[in-house]
Amino acid sequence: MTLRHTVVWLDHQDATIIDFSFDAQHALHVHHDTADRKLHHKVNTIGSGRTAEDPEYYRQIVVAMKDAHDVLIAGPGIAKLAFHKHLIKHEPALARKVIAVETINHPSEGQLLEYARKYLKAVDNMVGHNG
To answer: From residue 131, how far is each of 39, 99, 102, 107 by CA, in Å?
Structure first.
């Protein structure tokens, strides 16, 4: 069976990409190679204190979701929004497959998959797809 849904959970350090149908799944994890960088602004320092966008990190996530049909992007902070903007600018065909961008705080892989299945099943029911 074709795995037609994809959920991407990411923060600035890690990403979990799960391709799934409603009876099968495949998961992949992408880790940022400089995950030890500070993400918060400190007093009396120059710059915003935020981690710069990392095109290689995003590229690895895009490669992992290359066969996506419907995509749910999730995460706890602003990384999910930055990734979505990256898709719009650099991967417009993939960006058009994004159904929603949701805030979800550090779920287990099982919790993420359960959330995505419920979310995308509701979307399927609204548009008349059978997952």
So the answer is: 38, 15, 20, 23
What CATH number is attached to the domain comprising 57? 3.30.420.60
Dmax over CA atoms of the chain, in Å, equals 56
pLDDT at residue 55 above 80?
yes
Expressed as residue numbers, the domain containing 114 is 5-32+52-127
Q: How many residues does the chain have?
A: 131
Q: Would you state the pLDDT for residue 115?
A: 95
Residues 6+ apart with CB under 8 A from 6: 17, 18, 19, 20, 65, 67, 68, 69, 70, 71, 72
CA distance 42 to 21: 44
Domain-embedded: residue 66: yes
Distance CA 78, CA 113 (A): 21
DSSP one-letter code for 1:
-
Spatial distance between the Cα atoms of 34 and 20, rounded to a whole number of angstroms: 29
In a domain, 19, yes or no: yes
What pLDDT, in 10s, does the model give residues 77-104? 999 999 999 999 999 999 999 999 999 9
